[in-house]
Amino acid sequence: MTSQELLYEGKAKKVFDTDVPGTVIVEFKDDATALNGEKRGRIAEKGIANAAISSKLFPLLEAQGIPTHFREQLDARRLAVDLLQMIPLEVVVRNRVAGSLEKRTGLQEGTVLDKAVLELYFKNDQLGDPLLNDDHIEVLGLANSAMLQQLRIQAMKINTILTAFFAQRQLILVDFKLEFGLRDGQLVLGDEISPDTCRIWDENTLKKLDKDRFRRDLGGVEEAYHEVLTRVLS
Ligand code: TMP
User: Fold this and answer.
1) For the whole prediction, is pTM greater than 0.90?
2) What is the per-residue pLDDT across 154-174, written as a single tens digit (0 to 9) for each?
């Protein structure tokens, strides 16, 4: 497979066309942004860690019945994936209070939620990725109710699988963000699963091992990504 023209460059990834129809290459960058692009920086070898972590987690999900875009890891930073028709929603699942849920509810960070909370955000930089309800999503034509129902079921199943996987490695999956797309009309998990898109805490110390270290200038950012990589691969 040969990499061809650059189709898209995002904040953390580049997507290239290939000579294989329906297959694209995702390249993970070290660039990091937060606060809707207001904060910018680089996290050394983040792209390598995120590519490796995603390459472990997508097949894990696939093996448990979740269709994903993942095909193979090509090298340290590049994955071959299926081209999806992306649904412009950020699907957030939360097991504990953190981040914007802390701000929205006033609940203390770390509070365990009685049931997992699912939120849907409009992936739209100009609007600042606002929270949407199901009616908003339907009138915007982003997904119909059957698709939304399926999306919720898949996201909750992914939460169960990933929570157990991280727990086996003494890690708490606090929350995470997913993006889905369509492949031949079927709902498929796309994007990445990494410390950029998940909040992951050490089970014993509750130390943050994710992008919050960058967002909040906590230091030890590279070390945290490396720690998650080591445990995920263990
Ligand atoms: P939040 O608490 O800021 O809403 O974030 C919830 C989860 O979603 C957290 O694990 C980080 C992830 N996330 C992204 O991956 N991309 C984003 O643009 C945002 C806002 C959150």
Assistant:
1) yes
2) 999 999 999 999 999 999 999
pLDDT band for position 3 (cuts 50, 70, 90): confident
In a 10 Å sphere around its CB, with 0-12 CB exposed, 13-18 middle and 19+ buried, how is residue 87 labelled? buried
CATH no. of 85-219: 3.30.470.20
- pLDDT per position as a tens digit, 102-141: 999 999 999 999 999 999 999 999 999 999 999 999 999 9
227 vs 218: CA distance, rounded Å: 15
At residue 36, the pLDDT reads 81
* 197 Cβ inside 6 Å of ligand 1: yes
| b/e per residue 149-186 (b: at least 16 CB within 10 A) | eebeebbeebbebbbebbeeeebbbbbbbbbbbebeee
Q: Closest ligand 1 atom to the C-alpha of 36?
A: 18
From CA 149, how far away is CA 144, in angstroms rounded? 9
In the chain, domain spans:
3-82, 85-219
The length of the chain, given as a count of residues = 234
- Measured in Å, residue 19 CA sits from the centre of ligand 1 at 34
Any bridge partners for residue 90, and if so which?
Answer: 121
199 lines ligand 1 (CB under 6 A): yes
Ligand 1 atom closest to Cα of 99? 2
Say if domain 3-82 classifies as CATH 3.30.200.20.
yes
**Best substitution site from 126, 129, 175 to test ligand 1's pocket, by max atoms within 8 Å of Cβ?**
175
